[in-house]
Specification:
Length: about 325
């Protein structure tokens, strides 16, 4: 089968013919229906993920159909449509038992210690599997582990209330355009921030207000008290994000497009306004299941910038980096 392989640290990727994965007792084999491209891939290719094994199959976002089930796998069968969490928890430690498997000590990451999903077929550990109902499309499902379910969990951690207002930076990005929809689905008023006048029109289909520009805090505060900021950009926007927040506000820091930049936090912003900063990265099974339900109810519409084949992955990353495009880039092997 064809797969996108990262041969070594900082060595880019190659499309190769490799043998189909052989599953273990606690694993399933899936046919990949859709995988999704992500900025995390680019950081992994640059060598920012120290736990990566080499060679490794790239890609950590997937929806697929089960073709084969290991002998110790319960609750899943051939033909089931499934997504995978971004990692495989052990299922036995205290965090796993609390339902906080994102904090599992022995968790293994796909496209890190485990092979990822940019391939025709992939193996997944049963502890990572979440079943997808027939009301959810492949496009809607593939966004859950790293995008919609991840955002859902962040808003759960921020204890978002229905009456509150959420501001989303990078609102046209793959995460941003869906973060708006998740916050709306949970009953919040939502403001999207973008730097592009052209994209504002599309963002306004989903958000209650759109602000165009780098300096957004003054305008945001005029619209409403900002209770939660989902910052998908990082160092270029964090100052304005903190300034936007009303007292008791929560800053959810999801993205950081350039990890080489250092940010100096002005503690006064945080202390005097009772602000919580929430670093956030992943989803648990509970979040994935609840987000799949919202997606199935039509409350979250996948926004897709483009879909490419395995052998067109270069083009996929061009679309991902293309500032004119809106939404996620998918891969259909
Ligand atoms: Zn991702
Ligand atoms: Zn565990």
């Amino acid at each position: 089968m064809k797969a996108v392989i990262v041969p070594g640290k900082g060595k880019g990727y190659v499309i190769q013919d490799v043998p189909e994965p052989k599953i273990g007792k606690d694993e399933v084999l899936i046919k990949v229906n859709r995988a999704a491209l992500c900025y995390r891939d680019l950081l992994q290719l640059q060598g920012y993920y120290p736990r990566m094994k080499y060679p490794v199959v790239l890609g950590h976002e997937v929806v697929g159909t089960i073709e084969q089930v290991g002998e110790n796998v319960n609750g899943f069968k051939e033909g089931d449509k499934v997504i995978s969490l971004l990692y495989a928890p052990d299922g036995t430690c205290k965090y796993c038992k609390m339902g906080e498997e994102a904090y599992c000590h022995s968790r293994l990451g796909y496209s890190e210690e485990l092979d990822g999903f940019f391939a025709e077929k992939a193996k997944i550990k049963v502890n990572s599997l979440v079943k997808v109902g027939s009301s959810v499309s492949d496009e809607g499902a593939v966004l859950v582990p790293c995008v919609t379910g991840m955002v859902y969990r962040s808003l759960r951690r921020a204890n978002l209330q229905k009456e509150e207002t959420v501001l989303v930076t990078g609102a046209s990005g793959g995460v941003g355009i869906h973060a708006i929809q998740v916050a709306k689905a949970l009953g919040a008023k939502v403001i999207g921030v973008t730097t592009s006048e052209e994209k504002a029109k599309i963002i306004s289909k989903f958000a209650d207000h759109v602000i165009v520009g780098n300096k957004f805090s003054d305008e945001a505060k005029k619209i409403d008290d900002i209770n939660v900021v989902i910052d998908t950009v990082g160092t270029p926007t964090i100052d304005e994000s903190l300034k936007s927040l009303w007292m008791g506000g929560r800053l959810i820091q999801i993205g950081n497009v350039d990890p080489s930049q250092i940010y100096q936090l002005r503690l006064g912003y945080v202390i005097l306004k009772d602000i919580k900063i929430i670093g956030h990265a992943s989803a648990t099974k509970r979040d994935a299941e609840e987000t799949l339900k919202l997606t199935g109810e039509g409350k979250i519409t996948p926004v897709i910038a483009g879909t490419v084949r395995l052998d067109e992955i270069d083009k996929g990353y061009e679309i991902l980096k293309d500032k004119k495009k809106i939404g996620k880039v998918l891969l259909k092997p």
